[in-house]
UniProtKB/TrEMBL annotation:
GO terms for molecular function: enoyl-CoA hydratase activity. This is Enoyl-CoA hydratase. SUPFAM superfamilies: ClpP/crotonase. The keyword Repeat does not apply. The lineage of its organism: Bacteria, Bacillati, Actinomycetota, Actinomycetes, Mycobacteriales. InterPro entries: ClpP/crotonase-like_dom_sf, Enoyl-CoA_hyd/isom_CS, Enoyl-CoA_hydra/iso, Enoyl-CoA_hydra_C. GO terms for biological process: fatty acid metabolic process. It comes from Corynebacterium auriscanis.
């Protein structure tokens, strides 16, 4: 499955899924959310157990790489699209209808998933990276929650992913303060598997993916199943969706989105 927004290729058992909306910093609009959901679901199917009568066949996909084209990994929700939703009264239904299924599809991939993070990852883009099993980050990349800055709570399971990595107190600090986390700090917080120079990132990730693709895939699947608590992330995503639905109706959220588009500071009223 390949289209203009998501490019997919498979080579030697490694499925590479490339987010391809560089002109918009790989921000997530409806078409991209749905395309990613389909790409993740297809990877999960292709990494599944062989069908009956084919038990000597290796699965088509034995490792997955999630990467992006351009200067950003993924900057989360397309805020221009969000402003249009606010004006038309569409609200945050997309969280339940599009974001959560996209994340569930990513979490359902049974083989190791590696994030190749060459540039900024924010909001749901950071959530996508955190939902991967391993994360390799360029020295030029960064993380940012970017939710309170637009008058929203976390979505896409990011709150639970950060709690799992950082503990409750530090996760809350990161989400509330909403500061940019550069590569050295991300490594010190144990948010990434490794930080490498930009010119070495692709080769580093390819080497790790190749190791998985040539390794004992059944054992990797069982190990991932034992350790991964996808249900906790999905439950958090459902709770986050409820919070987003409430916050989408607030004056502060509308003001934050409008101020962003108009390139001015937001004037929050606390309502």
């Amino acid at each position: 499955m390949t289209n203009s927004l998501v490019q997919v290729r498979t080579e030697d058992g490694v499925r590479t899924i490339t987010i391809h909306r560089p002109e918009a910093y790989n921000s997530l609009n409806k078409d991209l959310r749905l395309a990613l959901k389909d790409a993740f679901a297809e990877a999960a199917r292709d990494a599944g157990a062989p069908r009956a009568g084919e038990d000597t066949e290796s699965p088509a996909v034995r490792a997955v790489v999630v990467r992006a084209e351009g200067k950003s990994f993924c900057t989360g929700q397309d805020l221009k699209e969000q402003l249009e939703h606010m004006k038309t009264g569409a609200g945050m239904g997309k969280v339940v209808e599009e974001y959560n299924p996209m994340m569930a599809a990513l979490l359902s991939i049974p083989v190791p998933v590696i994030a190749e993070i060459a540039g900024p990852a924010a909001g749901a883009g950071w959530a996508i990276a955190m939902a991967c099993d391993l994360r390799y980050m360029s020295t030029q990349a960064s993380f940012k929650a970017a939710f309170t800055g637009v008058g929203l709570a976390a979505d896409s399971g990011l709150s639970e992913s950060l709690v799992q990595r950082l503990g409750r107190s530090k996760a809350l600090e990161v989400l509330l303060l909403d500061e940019k986390i550069d590569a050295p700090r991300a490594q010190s917080l144990d948010l990434v598997t490794g930080v490498v120079e930009p010119q070495d990132l692709r080769e580093t990730v390819a080497s790790v993916a190749s190791k998985f693709a040539k390794g004992p895939t059944a054992a990797y699947k069982e190990m991932k199943g034992l350790v991964t608590r996808a249900d906790l992330v999905e439950n958090a995503a459902a709770a986050e969706a409820d919070a987003q639905a409430r916050l989408a109706k607030t004056a502060d959220h509308l003001e934050a989105i409008t101020a962003f588009v108009e390139k001015r500071p937001a004037d929050y009223r606390g309502i």
